[in-house]
Amino acid sequence: MADPVKVVSKRFGIPDSHTLDVYLQHDGYVALEKAVKSMQPAEVIDEVKKSALRGRGGAGFPTGMKWGFVPKDSPKPKYIVCNADESEPGTFKDRAVMEFDPHSLIEGCLIAAYALGSHTCYIYIRGEYGWVQDIMDVAIREAYAKGYCGKNILGTDFSCDVYTHPGAGAYICGEETALLNSLEGKRGHPRIKPPFPAVEGLYGCPTVVNNVETLATVPWIIQHGGDTFRQLGTEKSGGTRLVSVCGHVNKPGVYEIPLGYPMKDLLEKECGGIRNGNKLKAVIPGGSSVPIITAEEAYRVKLDFESIGEVGSMLGSGGVIVMDETADVFESTFRLVHFYKHESCGWCTPCRDGGDWMEQIFDRISIGGGRSEDLDLITSLGRNIEGKSHCALGDALVWPITSAMKKFPEDFQRALDRGKKLLREPAAV
Amino acid sequence: MLTPEREKKIDELLTRYPSSRSALLPALWVAQEQYGWISLELQRYLAIRLGITPEQVREVVTFYSMYNDRPVGKYHLQVCCTTPCMLMGSDDVIGYLEKKLDIGRGQTTGDGLFTVSQVECLGSCGTAPMLQVNREKYDENLTTEKVDALLDRLRTQAAAEGSNG
User: Fold this and answer.
1) Which of A87, A128, A167 comes nearest B132 by C-beta?
2) Can you list the domains of chain B with their CATH numbers?
3) What is the rounded radius of gyration, in angstroms, for the C-alpha atoms of chain A?
4) ipTM of this model?
């Protein structure tokens, strides 16, 4: 079989791939030139629709459709906002794009701006990625100097500015409306939807918020055509995507795979198998917010939106967290409960107080104070958070818990039994 | 209150947005770079500088975990302990730091050099366990030897800066 086609990661590994010179030697800004000189904005959107590209941030919304929601006749300015607030535990692919191929993101932003009639792009980068922002800023300066950004791009009448903007350590700002509030200099509280950002986003103006990888994929689609991209993947999940694999594998890292690629191959071929020859126990296939799956499910599932759906989970952000037989799913879930409790923005009661209470229950079970009714209590508390919170963070707290309890009940039972064991054993004197 | 270069940076930030309030997060970073933390006085100054209310600054400083609203050590060691790092031994790393520096999480050493914090996922899951010093590039794939070497390097760096005045 021929090597799988690389789209987003094709320049990774080339020396100095982050510089404009190297980017230009490898198809850099070819797609931007094609778009602004020979395509109408509507044709660009059509090409992206044809590609079946779905958002790579987590929700998997079709990108072309999202772009299509932006009103064409609005008198207000339109904004392109790139969501580079990569914070979903297990996910580190957008960082790789910005570190190794910053110009592909800039080019994607500019093509999106051209397609949607926007003249300003903001790239919102999580605060911890300070040095990544520095790399992006250098690349943007290079692009301005050579006429790819700014006024009259490539001699046309299309003008567009690109800026980076730092976050400051808030997971919730990965939620697009929270991100917009943060970009406006406010607390990162999600907004009520509708209105959706495409209609009323940044400063109340039409705004498209896209993930880093999504935008970095656009230049390839414009250069090679939407159909070519779609055919790399499955019918409903077009193209290739990045996955970031971490945990108990021999070679963790960022890999580009065609959608529909078997998880078993990813773990055994790309990642070199499970560490120390251990047995696989569990996989969280799409970032910490998605339901956990068992080893048996992981070995038969394919990495596309539909196949993962059949085992009750999601492809999410492409963050694959691998656990071998030494992992304790109760403890790994407890740590996620702590994460979501910590990252709740505090706006709504189900998520803020529910998360706090949930952590208290896990905490007492963990130290051996578990009560027999605690599992039922977790389930009932979960039911009162899921679907009842202001944004999806409440769901993201509950899904890992309910799936872990269902698929690894023995780990939860063992944690509950710790207390009984402590009572039976005589105290050491 | 800020150095002339930093004032210039804030002037430049203000040209990027149609609303001056949008410049708040980047401006807070500029201020924290100089002082290490954001005092109430600094918050009031930035409010005037951006033409917004002190409350609008305060609510942001207290919301985002990376802004320090109290002084921290010269080197803020932020150890990620979220699940992917936990699976790879982050609890041992933070435990080792606490023992070696003889402080707990959130505390600062008596000489004002180090603060240790437990933080949530920093997007370095494939190179776990890891930590971030202030806002520098990450220290990844940590072992106790690497932690020792890092502390030595930072102590040497601090001593060199101290003797340079």
Assistant:
1) A128
2) 4-63 (1.10.10.1590), 75-163 (3.40.30.10)
3) 23
4) 0.97
